[in-house]
Write a structure and sequence with these properties.
Blueprint: H1 2-22, E1 26-35, E2 40-48, H2 57-67, E3 75-82, E4 88-96, H3 99-105, H4 108-113, H5 124-135, H6 141-147
Antiparallel strand pairs: 1-2, 2-4, 3-4
Helix pairs in contact: 5-6
Length: 151
Amino acid sequence: FSSNVLFLSTCVRLASWLLRMSESCTIRTRKFLTNRLLQRKQMIVDVLHPGRPNVPKADLRENLAKMYKTTQDVVVCFGFRTAYGGGKSTGFALIYDSMDFLKKNEPKHRLKRMGLYDKTKASRKQRKERKNRQKKVRGTKKAKVGAGKKK
């Protein structure tokens, strides 16, 4: 009998912990700025998430898009740091006016993170051979050598 009670109390504790973990987070924005030069809105985002280790960026993008009445694909979140002790994270968010402006103004590493940029890189050996061929010529001829020789 006592083992059943112990098991049930453990289950109740586990269920309450899971409920706390699944609680929604609170998102607040501050230092909001409309940047017309880069066609975007930029802000600092404070996320309160008690009982959770952190909040996925996909969820943050979804919530910010809802808050600012835009689509999720033009929202970029980055630079989130969790405060000591947990429960609060602070980061940066950008909301672009359109996808074209996002692709034009965002750095390549953030585009790659979002799955919008894929750079094909030549093999290490090809790059080294190209560099050594370019060393042998001067000026604008380097570009011709770099493009590769026609066979």
